[in-house]
Design goal:
Layout (H helix, E strand, L loop, with lengths): L2 E3 L7 E3 H10 L1 H5 L2 H17 L1 E5 L5 H14 L13 E5 L3 E2 L6 E2 L1 E3 L3 E5 H9 L6 H12 L17 H20 L14 H14 L1 H7 L1 H11 L3 H4 L4
Parallel strand pairs: 3-4, 4-8
Antiparallel strand pairs: 1-2, 5-6, 7-8
Helix pairs in contact: 1-4, 3-4, 4-5, 4-6, 6-8, 8-9, 9-10
The structure holds zinc ion.
Amino acid sequence: MTVREVKGAGQGIWSEVWEQILMTDVAFFRRLSVRSLDRIRPAIAHFIDEKEILGHGVEIDDRARLLVAAAACRLTLNIPAETYTRLRCVDVYATLFEDEGDGHRIEGNARLHRVSLAFDRLEAGLRGGSGENVGYHEFAHVLDTSDGLFDGVPPLLVDPSLHRSWTLVLEAELARVRAAVEAGEPTVISRHATASESELFAYATEVFFEAPTSLREAHPALYTLLAKYYAQDPLAAAGRV
Ligand SMILES: [Zn+2]
């Protein structure tokens, strides 16, 4: 195994084995520019260093750690001040799991300091093409709550001027998704997003990264808002604009 220092990380090493795992199993990683790769590698190494990643029926090896960290760090690639400081632990389950002891099995959950993920769903999301990613969803909840409030408004670190439009856009888009669901129309964003602004932010984040063309066509204002918040434009990155 060859290893090299991660540029600018201040900690951690990066191995060619890690690079190979991410290139093989994470579709977005293969598409990143050289500059983005230089930023995300230290972020992933830092996440793995800092967070406790626990397995439940699944072995937590380098690949499992990398896949969890890659999902988290894709969201914050261009938000350097956001390092998931409140997040302490990620529980990884082999597949759908029961969270509340009520017989209801789920694929992910986020609390103030803790995220839980179904690993098979995370793997599928990172392979790309499904338009869904439970990792993006739950880590978006972590971003939302990093100011202490679970309200669909994350701290707006890159562009604080978004504050004015954020609530207006989210409220209007939530009303549109609710109206479509009530009318029995198909929706680009999961109908589960109708539960609240915070669910809309999390579900819209999945579509923003995984099916950006659909989101921009169906919800252009929401696409623009998320592009400003994440300081990323997945359509431009994919060479489709
Ligand atoms: Zn959610």
